[in-house]
Amino acid sequence: MPETPESRFPDSEDVSPPPDPTVRGRHKIYVGAAAGVGKTFRALQEIRELQAEGRDAVIGVLETHGRQDTERAAEGLRVFPRRITEFKGAQLSEMDLEGLLAARPEVVLVDELAHGNAPGSRNPKRYQDVQGLLSAGIHVISTVNIQHIESLNDLVARLTGVRVRERVPDAVISEADEVILVDVTPQVLQERLRAGKIYAPDKVEQALKNFFTEENLAALRELALRQVAEAVEVEPQDKLSIKDRILVAVTTSPSSGRLIRRGGRIAKRLGGDLQVVYVETHRPSREEARVLEGFRAITEALGGEFRLLKNAGGVGRTLVNYSREYGPTQLILGESRRSRWQELLRGSIIHQVLRGTRNVDVYIIAEEQD
Prior knowledge:
The chain has helices spanning 39-52, 68-74, 97-103, 126-135, 153-160, 170-174, 186-194, 201-209, 214-231, 257-270, 286-301, 315-326, 340-346, 349-356, and strands at residues 27-32, 57-61, 83-87, 90-94, 107-110, 139-145, 178-181, 245-250, 273-280, 305-310, 330-334, 361-365. It is an alpha/beta fold. It has a five-stranded parallel β-sheet, with helices on both faces. Strands 10-9-8-11-12 form a five-stranded parallel β-sheet, sandwiched between helices. Strands 3-4 form a two-stranded antiparallel ribbon.
């Protein structure tokens, strides 16, 4: 949804300060394909306009990264003091969630939604702080880059060669009241990069050769356009159709995380349910348990359910029996890691599932390391 002058948020007639804690705040997100498109600049511009109208709008947290244009855009705006914490001898500053909840401003700007908070913070992630503000009836204007959205993580990594570690659950985007795409062409973004408006001069050439290639930026731009289009898409009117169920089977290999994200994208596109299962063939080691807990977190972030299945006659048979009970419309499996000889001796799990399931689309995803 390209930005228009009419997309100002929140409208004065919608807001009756001070915030009402019984009414959830409204959330507006500025989304961009990459750093430097102007998301934060647009958000700051909106805060300035709200303050000029006499509204109680403040900057909750702003990450300028030394960019002079961003710093100038913030000059003269009311900034809520950050909370300072110490960690391993270093002083770290984060958004003061407790202070904002006590002060109860009408609108808060929260930059870089995917940011991970410093140890000791109330929430591990900044988007969780935003949820706290919204629950208190405070309106939020935030920013995020497309590569930080959970279900797009694998796709972005394949397109750009860069694996983003800080992620935002898709539900945060889909539940927002407004999602605004801030869009510029790859050529304009490269010009801004060369002019030193995004990174320091000594990092420009490396960025142009890696993440900020014209091909990467064009691909990210297309992803951003699709993501925003999906976020504002009208719900289908036919509620009587059978809802899709996407079932993903994982192992304790870290690379199984990409299967979950693939399933999450399919579930989101089809408006279906996501369920992820692991068949317990042995007591997991400490490292395997950690991996499984990570998979549970990813699944829940994508709005799905994670389940552990008791082994009943082998992994293949267990998956077939559970599929008959659950009734998925799509089943996602990872490429077998067994050798040909092992498959001859013990059988192929994939073949067992293919033979044992009916009326299910089965996807076999090639092995790839995270």
